Amino acid sequence: MNAMVVTYLIYIGISISLTVWVARTLFKNGRVFLVDVFAGNEELADSVNRLLVVGFYLINLGYVSLALKVQQHVSAASTSIEVLSWKVGLVLLVLGGMHFFNLWLFSKIRSRSALRQAPPPVPADRHIGSDGTATPA
Amino acid sequence: MNSLTVLYDSSCSVCCRARRWLEHQPQYVPLKFVGAATPHAEKRFPELDSAETLKQLTVVADDGGVYLGAKAWLMCLWALRQYRGWSLTLGSEAMLPSAQRFVEWVSRNRK
């Protein structure tokens, strides 16, 4: 097994571990948001949570796979570390971007849900009683 | 609150245009429209002063709440999916006086 293959294997190992770690964090902590958004409907929240995590895995692992190829020849350990550092750095940036996108998505879904349940912006000027009499608010 | 009845001046072109616009917006709370001071409106809401409902937009909620002028417009925005955020902003303490002045100015100058 030459240095090139070892570099690839380490890259794949680190990238997949990082993706799984971020996805699990998102899955665990995003659930609370979603349960709140879906007014305590835990089944729906879990379903949406799983679907989001599947999308997260697909995008990240797709990127990891596309970015696998190393352009320069790797023969020494120092070159391998440099290549790995660059590639893992890019994976981390993509994961960070996706993570913040998910946070933004959660907060957007949450604020939309809060808006849906928002009470009227102003109190009534008066009320019409059921007995036909007008009463001040 | 499950529905809002909007009493508007059906002889005023601005009000009719506003009604058409409101009708075509996606709604959280259904809006029903009734011409102000019509026999139907008087029969439905005998407690309301017909002359007052012709002067300014009036919204009656299904819980009996009556909203007049700027408050009625804010309630219409509140009923709409895409404008509820705006209704909360414009209905805040800081913005409400300006919103009321603007609506009064439009009411005075409408034809």
CATH class of chain B: Alpha Beta
Uncertain runs of chain B are none
User: Into which percentage range does the β-strand content of chain B fall?
Assistant: 15-25%
CATH architecture heading of chain B? 3-Layer(aba) Sandwich
Strand line-up across the major sheet of chain B: 2-1-3-4
Largest sheet of chain B: 4 strands, mixed
User: Number of folding domains of chain A?
Assistant: 1
The total count of helices of chain B amounts to 6
**What characteristic shape of chain A results from the CA principal axes?**
elongated
Distance between the termini of chain A: 82 Å
Structural class of chain A: mainly alpha
- Rg of chain A computed from alpha carbons, rounded to a whole number of angstroms: 25 Å
Quaternary structure type: heterodimer
Q: What's the gist of this structure?
A:
The complex is a heterodimer of chains A (137) and B (111). Chain A is mainly α and 137 residues long.
Keywords:
A: two-stranded antiparallel sheet, B: 111 residues, alpha+beta, Glutaredoxin, four-stranded mixed β-sheet, 6 helices, 4 strands, globular
What does this structure look like?
The complex is a heterodimer of chains A (137) and B (111). Chain A has helices at 3-37, 42-66, 77-116; strands at residues 126-128, 134-136. By secondary structure, chain A is mainly alpha-helical. Chain A has a two-stranded antiparallel ribbon with strand order 1-2. The radius of gyration of chain A is 25 Å and the shape is elongated. Chain B has one domain: Glutaredoxin (3-Layer(aba) Sandwich). Chain B is globular, with a radius of gyration of 13 Å. The longest helix of chain B is centred in the C-terminal third of the chain and has 14 residues, at 96-109. Chain B has a 4-stranded mixed β-sheet, covered by helices on one side.
